[in-house]
Structure formats: C-alpha cells, structure tokens
Amino acid sequence: MMLIDGKKVAREVRGKIAAEVARMVAAGERRPHLAAVLVGNNGASETYVKNKVVACKDCGFQSTVLRLPESISESDLLAQLAQLNADEAVDGYIVQLPLPAHINEQRVVEAIDYRKDVDGFHPMNVGRMSIGLPGIRPATPQGILMLLDYYGIETEGRHCVVLGRSNIVGRPVASLLLQKAFPGNCTVTVCHSATVHLKEITRLADILIVAIGSPHYVTADMVKDGAVIIDVGITRVADDGVERGYKLQGDVDYVNVAPKCSYITPVPGGVGPMTIASLMRNLLELRRLKRENKL
Ligand code: GUN
Question: Ligand 1 within 6 A of 251 CB?
Fold first, then answer.
C-alpha cells in the first residue's frame, strides 16, 4: 500500500506557483490578487479562509478578506460582489460556503463574474468544463486529478466509482474523469443516497472517490483488493483529548481499508491540502486565460 502524500505534493505545487509569481513580478506584472468573502462566523469556514490566506502568502499573491456580518441581506451581499467584479485590482475571488440560510447560495454563485470565479462554481465554468473547453475547474476535483497524475496512477479504461453527487466534488470529479484526457478516460459510475446494491458497485471500483461527509462510511468489505482510494471527507468529530476539541475524520475506515489498497489518501494530509494548492493554481490560470483572451 502506498500513501498519497497530499501535503508534500501541495508544497511542491505552491513552490512552483511562487517561482512563477516571482518571474511575473520581476517582469513588471502586477502581483496576482485573491479576495475571499466570509459571511458570518462559521468555525470551519474561518479556518478554511485562514488557510487560503496563508497559501496566498506562500505563493506570493496579494490577498484580501472581506468579512461580512451573518445578518447581511442577500441584496447587500450581491452589491459587494458587483464591486469585486468591477475591481480591476482583484484577479479572482471566492465566496466561502455555506452561506447563512436566508441567502440563496445559487444566486450568489451566479452573481460572481465567471472570469473571476476562482472556485469554478459558476454555471459558465461548469458548462465549459463538462464539454472540455478551457476554463476554471473546481479546486477539489482538480486537486484529485493532480494527485493521480503525480503518482502516475493509470486511469484510462479503469472503472472509477464516485460516492456523492455534490456540485463541489462528486459531479465535477465524475465529469473530469470521464473526459478523454489524462488523467481521465475512465468508465465512471456515480453513487448517491438512493443507490441500491452500493457495496456491489463499490467493489467493482479500480478507483474509489468518496465525498459524502460521513465518517468511516466506507468499510473494508466495500473495497476491491488493490483499489485506489481517494477520501475527500473532512468531518470535525469531537475529541476531548486534543486542545482544539475536535479531530478530522475521513469518509473511509482508514485502518481497515488501507491494507487492501494500492494507494490511499490519509485524512488529514491527503486531498485537503491539494484543494488549496489547486485554488492557487486557478488564480494564475485566470490571469493566463484572460491574457490569452480564452475566457
Ligand atoms: N466550502 C467548502 N468547500 C468550499 C470551496 O471549495 N469553496 C468555497 N467557496 N466554499 C467551500
């Protein structure tokens, strides 16, 4: 069994981005600038945004966090996004999800100028991805593909089973692995909460990607010998034994599943760090696509 070290790969990706940014700045270009919109005080969101700010610093990007109160109205939030869309000094931005219940998330995602949509969530970017046009790919799926590529994991003709159909992970990763590309060219099956005979299907997977947010859901009997396991779950589970009061758990029963696999991502330290590295790459990609008039 080989451990997929997302921390190490993400560090290398960030190093390459930093070198590219240093070249751009030396050539007189403006430093790439990422903005993050954080609404309310969701603990996990605060952590994610903090990690993104640190990553920006590592990569040589400028970053700005726009903190908005939980009580902000949808129209006031949309007005803030219109300002970011118009701001020439901002190359791309994210609106950290989830948003408070009184705000329509889809309306917010569609209000982001798709040419600044570093998350790749706007329907224009989703559509472009699904038909294989240049554009921004959602960070977590792209990070997963970067890991498959880095470890030279064969994907062509292999059966990839995706557990979960979210817009952030399940659907886009299935779409990318279906494309005639490397990594890609897989036979893809997407399973979800209404799937029957789940175990029979997951046992067919050469590559099993799990993104359901249910700790230790995938057990050893659901996995074929020699499968590649990508665990996207990061659920906070209470743990009095550690200072911060919780630990992170993946969707896979790692201890029992790992001995059966050819490759597996740990939680933490697998897919998580790649999501952020991939987001950083997207900001550079937005600059390039705009420069080359491809977006
Ligand atoms: N919430 C959980 N994951 C993500 C992500 O990748 N982007 C944003 N904007 N919010 C999230």
Answer: no
